[in-house]
Amino acid sequence: MTFEGDEGHRPEEIRAVPLRHPGRWAGTVVMLVLAAMFAHDVTTNPRWQWRQVASNFWTPPVVSGVERTLELTAIVMVVGVLLGVILAVMRLSPNPVLTSGAWLYIWFFRGTPVFVQILFWYAISALHPTISLGIPFGPEFVTWQANSLVTPLVAAILGLGLNEAAYYAEIVRAGILSVDHGQFEAAQSLGMRRPTLMRRIVLPQAMRVIVPPTGNETISMLKTSSLASVATYPELLYQTQNIQARTYVIIPLFVMASIWYLLMTTVLTIGQYYVERHYARGTSYQLPPTPFQRVKRNLTTLRRVPFSADALGEAAR
Amino acid sequence: MTPAPMVRAEAVHKRYGLLEVLKGITLEVAPQEVMCLLGPSGSGKSTFLRCVNHLEKINAGRLYVDGSLVGYAERGGRLHELPEREVCRRRTEIGMVFQRFNLFPHMTAFENVAMAPVLVKKEPKADVEKRAQALLTRVGLSTKVDAYPNQLSGGQQQRVAIARALAMQPKLMLFDEPTSALDPELVGEVLDVMRSLAEEGMTMIVVTHEIGFAREVGDTLVFMDEGVVVESGVPREVIANPKHERTKAFLSKVL
Questions:
Q1: Which one of A12, B39, B120, B131 has the fewest CB atoms closer than 10 angstroms to its CB?
Q2: Are residues B92 and A193, on separate chains, in Cβ contact within 8 Å?
Q3: What pTM, to 2 d.p., does this model score?
Q4: Which string of DSSP letters, residue by residue, matches B124-156?
Q5: What digits encode the pLDDT tens for the residues B122-136?
Q6: What would be the CATH architecture of the domain defined by A56-132+144-277?
């Protein structure tokens, strides 16, 4: 049974007494107390030595350390992504030799510590004093001293990059598997060959699944790159420890380095947000506004329209 | 003399593991013919369609499209697998439309239609873009050129999918239950496009449950069940006077 509604009559708006949340209040109090304790310590404990933090922040060794951290992270991620995509495609190929080769690689590099891998590459000259290009088991054309070829930077790139590729391969594989099988068939029915199909159809769609963990990996790598200090690569942590060894100022310099790392990861987080939006094309009807757009909108609509019949009518129009 | 068939199947068999899905399909599709494949689900209609453009490999029998063997070359009494390049080249001559549309979601309607001819057939971009525009207009979507698939209704998506297949200028079109995933009120707009395509003389194999379409547009109706062709003939006659019990039973359920 249905009734024709009376268009002109509208029941009164509901104005209920809101539910109380005592748990939230208790939690808020605990957090405020903890925050006050922290603020008190930071401002009154002279051993934080904020003056030292500030005076070292922009010194040339620190700035060059920051630059090298960024540089190393960028190179390692490029190596990791390229090699990772290749490994993922290998793992999904119908060829059993390629599949097991990729599996072995991932098994090995995921199963040993990065720290050990960096030290291993740094010490490679003990295993192969010279490195040559030539025909396997045959004549050699060019020969280098391992020590001059595997510089601290190269050792860091090999240690971090080869390890990253193993993790990244799994991320890419998950992304490729997330693409609907019908997409492969549609592309094949148009006569697309496998490389084109992967590059134009599958990978762009896999990106939606791949990008968020890639952001994570990059942020994680920015910090993990500090391990390169053991290979005497002069990135941020290495420079920080150098200053500590010279001046015996310990905590303030760790604070300084941490602030730098936080700044860099913050910038990366913002970048990740926009890259994700880009690859969300064609997946949601309307993308949420960016913080910038949100601020702009709030500036133009100064008054919040209350949730009322008027607003509903407006929305319907 | 009848013209050489566009598609010729001789005792085509296909199995997945131990399950035999096609148990000897023999049929011919003449140029400009519209053949409708009918039958209960699991009867092998879609599988047969997918064999025609080599998305599936057949296990026994012979399958020819436009005179050449699908997926193989016969030399010295033996079959040799064709290289991927050749398989793909032949697929460009066969358009396929899927039940679930399978539009590329990261591209606009226009990009979906215009991409493959440029990328696969290396045709000049300007020509293809003109053709894509014309095709989208033809399927009634000239205003939806820049829409992404998820902004389109099912019927609109399927019409884009048809335009995408036509952009390759195929000589044969395969339709795999093109209206089964659509809301009832959207079925007509897709069938209209297919009807006009048939009137222009496109050779088509259509797997469908639309008896009305099969009767009005189809030149031949093939009824399949459990991997074999049970009955075939002029659609009007098969539908009005089915000869086999299985055909009768099926038609009585869907009519």
A1: A12
A2: no
A3: 0.78
A4: -HHHHHHHHHHHHHHTT-GGGTT--GGGS-HHH
A5: 999 999 999 999 999
A6: Orthogonal Bundle (1.10)
